[in-house]
Amino acid sequence: MSRVSLKPGSIAPNFEGRSAEGPIQFHQWSGNSWTIVFSHPGSSISKELYAVARRLSDIDQRGIKIIGFSRNWQEESQHWDRVLHHYDRQFASGKNVQLIADDQGRLSDLYEMLPHRDHHGVVSNPNTAFLVDPRKVIKLVLSYPSFLSTDLNQILRFVDDHTGPLQDIPTEMFGLDANGHGQIYGQETKASGGEVADAVTVAKGAASLVGNLTKDISSGDTSGSSNTTVTQTTDYIQHAMSVMDSLSDLGKVMPFIAPAFVLIKAIIAVEQRARDVDTKCTDLVQRVTFMLSHLPMLKKINVTDSTRQVIDRMNETLKKAAALIQTYRKQSVIARRLSVHNKDRFESCATSLGQCTNDLMLSLQIHQSTQLDILTRPIPSDPEDEAATRFVASHGGIDAVKGNEALVKQFASEMKLTVDDDVLEQLNTNISVALQQNQDRLEQSLNETVSASVVEGIRGLAAQMNEAAKEQTLVCVQCEKEYRDSTNGEKSCSFHRDEYDSWSKSYRCCNTKNPCQAGKHRSEHHCDYPYGNFFPFARNITNYTDTTEKWSEIEDVNLETSKKLSVSIARLLRWKSRGAQPELPTILVRVGNFSISEPFAFKTFNTKELELISKVVDITHQPVIFRVWHSEQEYALAEWVLSAAGIIVGVKITAKAATSDKPFIHFCPIDITSCTLSGDIRVLSEGGFRSYKPETPYVLPDIQRVTGNLLEKPPREVRTNFKTRTTPDLPVVLKLISNPPLMANPDFANSEIDYFTGTISVLNKNKVNSQEPISISSLTIFYRFIGEKTYQPVKSVELLDGVTLPTSIDPRQTLRLKFGAHVLRSEEDVKTDTRWWNRAFVARQRPLRFKVVLTDFDEEECSLVLDYVNPTYDLEKPGTDDLAFFFVDDPLTWKRYGVHVVSSPGNGPGAVKIGNESLNADAMKKLVYQALKTGESEILLNAGRENDKGRPSAWSWKAWALVDLSCRRLYAFKILILKPSGTSHTYACMGYVSCPDYGGSYEETRPIRYATEAATFPELEPPSSDPIVLDDDFDDLAPGEASEASLASKSSGVGSPSQFAVPDEVQNRLASIDNNLSRLATAMEQLVELLKTK
């Protein structure tokens, strides 16, 4: 017998073995029952046998068979007998538990229940138990360290959740012929007006419906503490089943009572699955049975519109009763008892049933009978309910008990009950929400049941098509693999719930490569549950303009959670952009947002499907297409609207958030024969959180600002009219070549110095024939700021363009000198860590001047002054889309620090951007909602920033929203900017800007109420207003003052000792004579050289 890999979805291997009752062939012995196959990787299964014996009544009730592999068979068979006797069990009660001799471990190895070493030498954990369904498919696998004794509860819950109760319904008696008619149309029931009643069978789909319902029915108390077991022969259930049978017969001629048949069957299924008696459930079932037992009288009367209305109300009441019983039975015994308000819900449901029964009897012309006491009697109470009521009252009420695990365990101990792991969770679950969820599932399943019955009605043609489809090869949209219907099982398809993320190279749903979900193959896209391929399919439709013709869309936002609830309806034009069109006219309804964790609908309906749905909705009176969330305070909903003739004439879409006063409701009229609009979209309700219009305009305070001043344009022109200062013994002329005279930081920037470059020329004024060159031994540069009276040396000087000193200049020749000079910044300036290109940070507030001094070997000096005025760069200013711009200027860092408030229409009407933070209409409404809840009308926004913290350029700003609590409106934003400057100053600006109209207001006006502001403008000293000196005459050469100026310069250690000035006209004439003499001297030198060579 070869070893195979077993996992959920595999067929359980068949085997033969020896038991105490003789040979057993596994598949034959298990029959149509659920089966547990177990063993133990050790040598004994004693602990597992004890666990089975303790829960044997629960196991027998479910009809589960158990088979164990024993490697010590004889001894453990005797041990099993002793265990049964210990728990007061008769041996016959354990007949479905068999131990199979497996001394050699052959069967254990077949089921991988022994340790196994793979080809890498790694020992795998052995399996310990298998759950096998009636089709011999493995559903659960337990592996070491899990055992049957530790996870038996899990197995029993799984069986409960996956067992359907309606396999015995004779659905073959409800067929339709190829024309859509059958024996259920044998009699025609006339309604008022002579209309022939709609006829459709639903019993065939009832089995599917109740099977879905019981998947959600938990076993209640799985602790084995039930006092009484409810069997299928219980009187009240038998009575209900008899009434159900009569409804089945009645449904052949009156299909509109089919929902009642389905719902009573659902209630019976719930009670059949229950394992304890509950007087409240029994009483409610008896009331339902009594009401439905009168329906056969419909055969004897003329069914009118009023009768149909009574039947519709009856079906609604039945749904509530079924949902209540289902929800109640899902709770454990402890949760039921301690939830003392459960009785109130049963009393409310009993009252509704009584009123409905009275109306039904009047409509059916039934006189009162002695049984009417069933409608007026009170809801019975169990002694356990009364004990729970006393316990809760004596311990501070239900809120105190349900949050205290110790009290819950105390109550369980007093009642001799076992505490389940999820008792506290059940006690703290909102049962009203669970009731609504169960009722919604009932409605959805009821629609699906009727729809399935109508579709499957054309049996002749459908049978042929189904046979052909079984052999047809299809492609699954979930896993993209081929399959056939004949081999399509419950777990045939493996897929991921979400898409593949190419960035993280994993699937978002599970972060693994292996599929995390299993189900049936599907050939068409759907939204029944999430799967990875659905999302690109849906985006191909929703993200393009040529795929749909949008008719109506609404969206509401929860202002506390930011959850969006959206609904839309459109006509489907293409399945993807530039792709194929639908074969038939089709509409698209979308409810909710695409998600793997929250419900949503993305459904298409073509003309044929809409015709079918009209019939279904007319019979079931369940118009809901899909609903997201079950609270009346928050939901999104799409529903069909029918005419009086029972034909769909439109779709109504609704969205409401819990924070909204009213829902958004739109009605979209449609023609289902062509899937087109048949009229204008009607707005039935404008929802959302809305403001009121102010009676008077808002008046905002003026801007407050304490700031420095920055130059926005050059304060003056650069001066170039400085003359050479020299002595008669150093006849040179210095001229400025560079324009402007000085360039700052042209090629690099440094935070500690500013680097200047300039170019001058030096002319030797001696005559050409004088043979008196001038030797320049050094170049020194000094600087001062305008307004100062003393020059100081620069940090360093360098000559550029390859010129070196000392150097000689021949008479009437010119020397070009390009220099670079470094000027140190102050300690305060260095701390700002500012790097400027093409500007000098040291000269940001006032100009400076260089004095370039040349010295010869005789220490004679000449000098020239170069003026520098900082070029200005455009400061930050308001933009074209700005609603406001608030700023301060800091002369220390020479920067403008500002905040823009910009209109941002791309984010929706009224949207603004404050700094880098965007606020759309939803965000603004959220701020107003927050203000109304807290009473604080000034709300600090998250938009503020602290920039360059710990540095001289540090600055911060904050923004507040100002809310009018009377008009429920955000009317303005307030901005505060703070900029410390050095150690002695702080600059600040506070400004207000009106909030744009972001929509969503009532027509009603209210008086305005300004916000109560806590943030105020700080008390600051105004900045110094001393005027800045932009120019002076310190370096100007006054007539007749040359020598004095030179002497003053000499005495200060800077510049030349004297000044010799030559008129320009004389200089020009002398230069001409010098040039001629120079040429003559050159010719003579050439002649002398020529003579020497001869």
TrEMBL record:
Protein's GO biological process: cell surface receptor signaling pathway
MF-aspect GO terms: antioxidant activity; oxidoreductase activity
InterPro entries assigned: Adaptor_Cbl_N_dom_sf, AhpC/TSA, MLKL-like_MCAfunc, MLKL_N, Thioredoxin-like_sf
Domain Mixed lineage kinase: 278-386
Stretches assigned to the Alkyl hydroperoxide reductase subunit C/ Thiol specific antioxidant domain: 9-139
One Pfam family named in its UniProt record: AhpC-TSA
Xref: Gene3D superfamilies: Adaptor protein Cbl, N-terminal domain, Glutaredoxin
Official protein name in the record: Thioredoxin domain-containing protein
